[in-house]
Design goal:
148 residues, 5-stranded mixed beta sheet, 4-stranded antiparallel beta sheet, 43% strand
């Protein structure tokens, strides 16, 4: 799976950054004992840098070993993750918001949910960008967002 993520990122003209590669090793492929986790892959195909402007969760927390990237460089792929925090919990309503550093009107948001009981989901939107998503499934879920 790691090679597939790297190959996809390169084919989209947004190679995996060094820090994202390190996060992949820790949070996607490591055995950490977390009950529910969502790994977020952000592929920035634009020639703009995006700065983190907000993050929140309804349940769960940001993974300490894979905090949201800030900034997301142009034409790059970054990785972060959310995880459950407590007995019989999931990670739901996990939201990140970004804004272009050179154009405040260009922004996007993503939200993911991986509940203890229920369906894995993701949503996204923005202003001045097009975002597509691919949602995985299971206890350790991978969601990919492509920002164009």
């Amino acid at each position: 799976m790691e090679q597939e993520i790297i190959t996809t990122a390169v084919s989209l003209g947004a190679p995996v950054t060094k820090s994202a590669g390190e996060r992949l090793d820790k949070c996607v492929f490591g055995k950490d004992g977390i009950a529910r986790k969502t790994v977020v892959i952000l592929i920035n195909r634009r020639d703009e840098t995006f700065n983190l402007t907000g993050s929140k969760t309804e349940s769960g927390i940001l993974s300490s070993n894979a905090l949201p990237p800030n900034p997301i460089p142009p034409r790059s792929t970054e990785v972060c993750s959310f995880e459950s925090n407590g007995l019989l919990t999931g990670c739901t309503g996990c939201k990140l918001e970004y804004q272009a550093s050179n154009n405040g009107g260009v922004k996007f948001w993503i939200v993911t949910s991986n509940p203890y009981i229920g369906k894995v989901s993701a949503d996204c939107g923005g202003n001045g960008v097009t975002i597509s998503k691919t949602v995985g499934g299971g206890e350790h879920n991978v969601v990919r967002f492509i920002i164009e």
